[in-house]
TetR family transcriptional regulator (Planotetraspora kaengkrachanensis), 412 residues
Amino acid sequence: MTGPVRGSRERMVFSAAQLIRRDGVTATGMRDVVTHAQAPRGSLQHHFPGGKQQLVNEAVDWAGRYAAKRIARFLSEMPEPSPSLLFAAMVRQWTDEYQTTGFAGGCPVAAATVDCAHATDATRQAAAAAFAAWSRPVAQALTDMGVPAEQAGSLATLMISALEGAILIARAEQDVRALLTVARELGPLLDAASSDARRGSTGESH
Amino acid sequence: MTGPVRGSRERMVFSAAQLIRRDGVTATGMRDVVTHAQAPRGSLQHHFPGGKQQLVNEAVDWAGRYAAKRIARFLSEMPEPSPSLLFAAMVRQWTDEYQTTGFAGGCPVAAATVDCAHATDATRQAAAAAFAAWSRPVAQALTDMGVPAEQAGSLATLMISALEGAILIARAEQDVRALLTVARELGPLLDAASSDARRGSTGESH
DNA sequence: CAGCTACTATGACGGCTGTCATAATCGGAT
DNA sequence: ATCCGATTATGACAGCCGTCATAGTAGCTG
């Protein structure tokens, strides 16, 4: 709707995100991105005058927005949403990919953080923004399910932390075990936070 | 005890781990490692005939053994150990570093996984072994605290996953918030698993 | 002394990287 | 037809990378 052949520029950002999450930022060359996106090499300096940094930052931004949209989609597909079901859906996205496509890629935001957090501050900020964009709809969904507002943000951070860590372990082990484990162990805790609130209990832990 | 000036070889492995966790595997050059370790460049091909791959793999191995030793030390320093206190100690190691030294580095095993899991299978296996070496003493400690054996491994995976993810987020945000959050939110769940078991409860979980 | 092994020094090689300078092409609007 | 901005093509540049070939030194053993 905006571009002619669906924007070669957008294709490059998308391809960058895909290659980054597979090989890391430093190991991903601009020529690789151009090839993967089937885009003209000459367009690079026109669309991304800021060089590789700009391309990487936009890829990280895109990943953050993508993750946020997935949360919305998960919720819309859920007849009776609950915290544990949302987390299970987030995890299942990864187990599905790993079981069908293989363990080639991880999270592009994690890759950018590991590779650029120290060397390139702008990319570090982009990663922080991506985590925030991802976390916001999760926390909002938790409050909608009855989790007290001051705990929703914390649980969202916990969910994303556990998911990111499990992705790492699953990729290293080439086994979805870690992903299934965190979903199983964390589910009851998440649901307890929403049902406790629905019951109106304030002081707990006996 | 084995080397003359405490082994230039060991220094290179250690420096490799430090640089990898700061800049990532690909961005860390062998010349950088030699410089950082103040080691003779000519020793590289003698001590690491397998090239960069061998050096990286040994650095990952070292990191795994180091993490395992830290668990043992945490436990030995704890008068009355509990799952939540162990996890708090694991988290505090990172908040301490970040608050005193800055947010320069992350976990070297995570960096190796992100950077090499797809390209270099041997490094991926080294990362998996490091996670296993790290997880084993955690699970053992949990069983010693009364967590049922079949749940101890799962909780160890959950702890390491949440910690790794929180490290990522903390580094991106340059704020220890995520680390403090996972410690606070996960603590009660961990202690419940050990006290439940001590009470002898067997079947429920839904 | 020689001889052997462990370690170090040095320089070079091909290949890849991000970036840039320059020019060509294309699509509309005038 | 002419012009102009947006897009693309192409080639080159300096710099870094991991690796290797070769030679040298130190230290122990005979």
Summary: Chain A touches chain B through 51 residues (CB under 8 Å). Chain A has a mean pLDDT of 92. The two ends of chain A are 58 Å apart (CA to CA).
